[in-house]
Amino acid sequence: MIPDIRQSFLKLQSRYAGSAPMNMRDAFEQEPDRFKQFSARLDDLLLDYSKCAVDEQTMALLEGIAKEAKLEDKRDAMFAGAHINATEDRAVLHTALRNRSDEAVHDDGHNVMPDIRAVLEAMGAFCDGVRGGTITGSTGKKITDIVNIGIGGSDLGPAMTCLALAPYCDGPRTHFVSNIDGAHIADTLAGLTPETTLVIIASKTFTTVETMTNAATARKWIADTLGDDAVGEHFAAVSTALDKVAAFGIPQDRVFGFWDFVGGRYSIWSAIGLPLMLEIGPQRFGEFLQGAHDLDRHFQTAPTRENLPMLLGLIGFFHRAVCGFTSRAVIPYDQRLSRLPAYLQQLDMESNGKGVTMDGSALDGPSGPLVWGEPGTNSQHAFFQLLHQGTDIIPVEFIIAARGHETGLKRQHDLLVANCLAQSEALMRGRTLDEARAQMEAKGADTALAAHRVFAGNRPSLTLVHRQLDPYTLGRLIALYEHRVFVEAQLIGINAFDQWGVELGKELATALLPVVEGKEDAAGHDSSTAGLVDFIQAEQG
Ligand SMILES: O=P(O)(O)OC[C@H]1O[C@H](O)[C@H](O)[C@@H](O)[C@@H]1O
């Protein structure tokens, strides 16, 4: 963690690990206003953190930490275009992509807003054309299916949001190919017709081997049926490397750019969002941007105790650095948010999974936590056993909408809500041995098994509630998590916007390909790697 917050951190730690650790069940009994005191809202977006082991003194210390870390100054520097991504000497301006105000945003003295608006307009015209049928495939047939080829930030954002906003989809169907495993593209293309398919190649760098390889496979799939000349009418591209796109032969009016000040995992607001815009239309895409913009304004202006990203970040830091919890589970009670945990894994872990501070020295505290999850209620029937009775404490983040879209299935939504709230209540309350025995006696059951029915309780969770998962709300939700990651990064003291840790594996894969192909021997590789290559080659026959 950064040295500026060390004193407050030590105070927090001794309070947390002190002689009388807080018991949440008692706290709820003693403080009738606990929910009111430890929750905050932005319109219909509510964050309840009262089921975390915090009291007024803890929150005051966390607020102090926010001040000592100069979080507000750092936040303002990001919005103002300072080169806070120091290791790559770049500004971090994904917030400009969703700037709906008239204010200019400068990167090195250049107002980036006209460029951003021009790309948004071009995307809008292209989407209207495809959705309306004036832009067709090479044989004049309407485009019915979009295949987005990309990976990491060029896949997870569009894939997650297209699924999340399915009720608002009135455009072509979207499909996503990311894995280098040929099974992914083979299975995806198997159900599609080249004549009515548009392929988007999405890559910030336009060099990523998975994307370039899958793009070549898709190109052949189009050309084999429709001929080489048809390729241009069945492809579009999204990238910051426009020179590299040109070499692929995609017409200029189907190429949508973005900029180095947008990190891959922060790029859903840019042209990387093209599949979402094609699916829901430019107007709803605008609502999605508006939601994020309103959350940005909230982050910039709300006092800490009312500021959702600040609170989420401070509680996240408290759980990781003070309490020592190594992971957090994100459990959306929303089937359409089933890709949100995967999306947040990249956002959070690629941003905050780092071991050195800005100046390259080793961290003197933990990096960000492991993030994982699956939707409820499915996860209740899978890993919740461990959350309730396992020996590790894992804070849980529940996400739930007050209203579902399936108005005819209201009872199912009420059951969903009841399950979500019941899980957080059970994690907090637990069940004592006496309670377990009493329950069993009341049922006339043998109390010998009572110990198995004990739940320690006092397990933290927080709950995010919103009215309904529409484009505006999804925009707010993603921006909320982005800023939470930013807040935690400032306290840990790392650069959240680079990703050097993904390089080594890529370099070694390049070096190993000729060995796997049998063109080079395994000399120089360890005996495990060489042995595995030998075994696989023998099995390949
Ligand atoms: O969009 P691209 O340049 O193809 O990059 C795709 C992804 O690959 C990289 O390995 C990075 O770890 C990710 O941050 C990035 O989103």
TrEMBL record:
Keywords associated with the record: Cytoplasm, Gluconeogenesis, Glycolysis, Isomerase
Classification via Pfam families: PGI
InterPro entries named in the record: G6P_Isomerase, G6P_Isomerase_C, Phosphoglucose_isomerase_CS, SIS_dom_sf, SIS_PGI_1, SIS_PGI_2
Glycosyltransferase as UniProt keyword: no
Primary location group: cytoplasm
EC category name: isomerase
SUPFAM superfamilies found in the cross-reference section: SIS domain
Pathway noted in the entry: Carbohydrate biosynthesis; gluconeogenesis; Carbohydrate degradation; glycolysis; D-glyceraldehyde 3-phosphate and glycerone phosphate from D-glucose: step 2/4
UniProt GO molecular function: carbohydrate derivative binding; glucose-6-phosphate isomerase activity; monosaccharide binding
GO cellular component: cytosol
UniProt record, GO biological process: gluconeogenesis; glucose 6-phosphate metabolic process; glycolytic process
Catalytic activity entry: alpha-D-glucose 6-phosphate = beta-D-fructose 6-phosphate
Function of the protein: Catalyzes the reversible isomerization of glucose-6-phosphate to fructose-6-phosphate.
NCBIfam families in the record: PRK00179.1 (NF001211)
Protein name, as recorded: Glucose-6-phosphate isomerase
Organism: Hoeflea prorocentri
Species lineage: Bacteria, Pseudomonadati, Pseudomonadota, Alphaproteobacteria, Hyphomicrobiales
